Amino acid sequence: MAGAAEVARLDRLETQIENGGGGAWEYLCLVRKLKARRSEKVLNHGLTILNDPKARSRLGREEWTLYEQVAIAAMDCQQYDIAKDCIAVLSKEFPGSIRVGRLEGLLLEAKGSWAEAENAYARLLENSPLDQAIHKRRVAMAKAQGDLSGAVSLLNKYLETFMADHDAWRELAEIYVSLQMYKQAAFCYEELILSQPTVSPYHLAYAEVLYTMGGLENLQTAKRYYASTITLSGGKNTRALYGVCLCSSAISQLTKGRNKEDKEGSELQSLAAEALQRDYKQRAPKKLPLLVSMLKNMKLN
Amino acid sequence: MGAECCYEVSQIAYIKLVLHALKHPSAAVNGLLLGRLRQDGAASATVEIADSVPLSHSQIGLLPALELALMQIEEHFEAKGLSVVGYYHANERHDDEELGNPGKKIGDHIFRYFPRAAVLLLDNAKLAKLPSGKGRDPVVQLYTRDSSKSWRQAGSDGSNQLTLKEPAANTVLLDYISSEKWQEIVDFDDHLDDISKDWLNPGLFN
């Protein structure tokens, strides 16, 4: 998951290249590192380098990585001929390579030839049954054909073997959310938090799912995880600050008339509200009145 | 609802929602529709969809951002005499032409406050044909809630018409598409990631 600073650097490079300032190769490497999806630009700048024999030879062995990157970008832009050409070059250089075989499968997918792609992947899996990327392509294919329950069962099976694959847990959680299976999504985030307890996006996502599920216990837990997100992100996460306020408001609605517990809770809410107002005053002053009014309404509730 | 009801979408609302979908081609996106009810006579009314606010391009099934957005958007537009009259949605997959459950649920919520609520679903096939045709038709499908409480696509029984208020809206839309205007659009999600980004998108069409 790319941080805001790195994404900003990516954007800067994009502008720089557009203005003729160079930096295409740096850009392409950064896109690869961040796993960003900027296929049009990658295709454009990548092809410029590949079509220039001098620039290509300067890359040395990285030339092949670029062919792969451009092939995938081409598929994302429906430029199947370009993808095919890149794959042909790679196939010649690396005959029998499973990595190239995966690209060929990907091209079949891109064209919508699901059955052929499935066969291609099955063949590759015969020789490399533990190839994680291919297993995940099968999940992607199910998803692309709208078979979400199929994708879910494939992913679950995959995670039985490859339970340390955080990306897979995240993908599964997101599919569950889109199916409104929030309890299952929560389970995925619990797994992620257990294995990587200091990664704040997992705390945040978990809190958001719990809030969506509702109910007093879930709201109280959500509030705790919004709080841990704030701690882990140095107090700067807007969603988490808002989340604390939303939880506090919802909890007080549910506990109206009961004992006023949780003095610590109301301190947290005030701190969060203050932090939001400070931030809006500085960076989004036009929206401050709306924020203040909203916070007032939530406290009255 | 047996009464005739027409839905009229303004250019601003319409273009914003299409641009929003184009900015995030590999994700589902959604947003709110703002407008008012105009009584045309004893038996007919028109819902004027005057504006739209893009909401999300990720994790659409989650509540917190939706609730925050509803509170702030309702308050902001109340001052202009507009309220939330509907919801728009664009599916993740190109060939998915159905209004899924997350969209229906949000639609249900809006329906509770505005019984003539409209749900607009982006029609990818129509959008793809836009450059070639001379279409005056909007590239969205209208869904409204019928008496059996389910969301039905309009046009199947002749009632509940959707029209574009400005007939040249598609021409203007095509213009913005070719100039890649969709890069500039901001949704509530973007605002939560960076509050200096304004979900009102002022100056988008200047």
UniProtKB/TrEMBL annotation, chain A:
Signal peptide: none annotated. It is a peripheral membrane protein. It is found in: Endoplasmic reticulum membrane. Keywords: Endoplasmic reticulum, Membrane, Repeat, TPR repeat. Its main location: endoplasmic reticulum. One of its GO terms (cellular component) is EMC complex. It comes from the Eukaryota. It holds the Pfam family TPR_EMC2. The keyword DNA-binding does not apply. Residues 100-209 form the EMC2 TPR-like domain. InterPro entries: EMC2-like, TPR-like_helical_dom_sf, TPR_EMC2. Part of the endoplasmic reticulum membrane protein complex (EMC) that enables the energy-independent insertion into endoplasmic reticulum membranes of newly synthesized membrane proteins. Belongs to the EMC2 family. Component of the ER membrane protein complex (EMC). This is ER membrane protein complex subunit 2. The lineage of its organism: Eukaryota, Viridiplantae, Streptophyta, Embryophyta, Tracheophyta.
Automatic annotation (TrEMBL), chain B:
GO terms for cellular component: EMC complex. InterPro entries: EMC8/9, MPN. Residues 7-141 form the MPN domain. Belongs to the EMC8/EMC9 family. PANTHER family: ER MEMBRANE PROTEIN COMPLEX (PTHR12941), ER MEMBRANE PROTEIN COMPLEX SUBUNIT 8_9 HOMOLOG (PTHR12941:SF10). This is ER membrane protein complex subunit.
